[in-house]
Inverse folding.
């Protein structure tokens, strides 16, 4: 891990079901392919999609950590399994809780604790990725205000286009702004990076950027570069596969 503070990126859904969880996992995998250590923290308490990528029991989950000051972040982290060819790692802290604890985890004091957990992750990992729902709850506000970069994630549709503008406005309302716009499952005219659709959809088959087609792997590599401060490569450039090429995209 580098001596500098980790890059903290919040992937914010412009609308429900935008694909922030999948985007965060794929980008984390791309960074792991380049030897980076990445943490993914879950602010999407309602959908709890990050839990689908974890095998076995989740205890404690992220909501338990934010309502209990005595637990360290490490107790809630689970490693995603990659092949030996991947030099880095991805550790995730998903939300997986009953409604009663979800309600407590959305309180202001819990949001402050969430910010503290983000800072802890930033001190221990090369990169921190935040899975954030549309801005409508305290933990989502805490996530975007703690992030170094905010990436709006939107589906490539008319609904996605309209939602991006609303998300920009909401981010301004809470005192921050977007660094880039990411379209998924196709291309939006306003997107800085577009990730094409892939046939790989099952959680137990994700990430697909290692074995997927060149277009998908290339887009994930460009997105990894963008959220870590590297230059966005030409999408038409020839690619040799993610494991061989992502290091040339991601700025150190």
């Amino acid at each position: 891990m580098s001596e500098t503070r980790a890059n903290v990126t919040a992937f914010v859904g412009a609308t429900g079901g935008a694909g922030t969880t999948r985007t965060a996992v794929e980008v984390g995998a791309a960074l792991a392919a380049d030897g980076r250590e990445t943490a993914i923290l879950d602010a999407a308490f309602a959908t709890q999609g990050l839990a689908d990528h974890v095998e076995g029991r989740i205890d404690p989950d992220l909501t338990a950590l934010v309502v209990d000051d005595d637990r360290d972040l490490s107790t809630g982290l689970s490693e995603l399994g990659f092949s030996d060819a991947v030099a880095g790692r991805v550790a995730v802290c998903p939300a997986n809780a009953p409604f009663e604890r979800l309600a407590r985890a959305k309180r202001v004091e819990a949001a402050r604790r969430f910010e503290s957990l983000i800072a802890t992750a930033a001190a221990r990992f090369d990169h921190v990725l935040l899975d954030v729902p549309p801005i409508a709850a305290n933990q989502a506000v805490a996530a975007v205000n703690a992030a170094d970069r905010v990436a709006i994630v939107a589906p490539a549709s008319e609904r996605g286009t309209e939602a991006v503008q609303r998300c920009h406005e909401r981010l301004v309302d809470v005192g921050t702004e977007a660094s880039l716009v990411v379209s998924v499952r196709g291309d939006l005219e306003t997107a800085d990076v577009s990730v094409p659709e892939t046939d790989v959809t099952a959680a137990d088959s994700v990430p697909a950027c290692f074995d997927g087609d060149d277009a998908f792997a290339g887009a994930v590599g460009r997105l990894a570069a963008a959220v870590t401060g590297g230059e966005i490569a030409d999408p038409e450039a020839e690619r040799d596969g993610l494991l061989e090429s992502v290091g040339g995209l991601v700025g150190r």
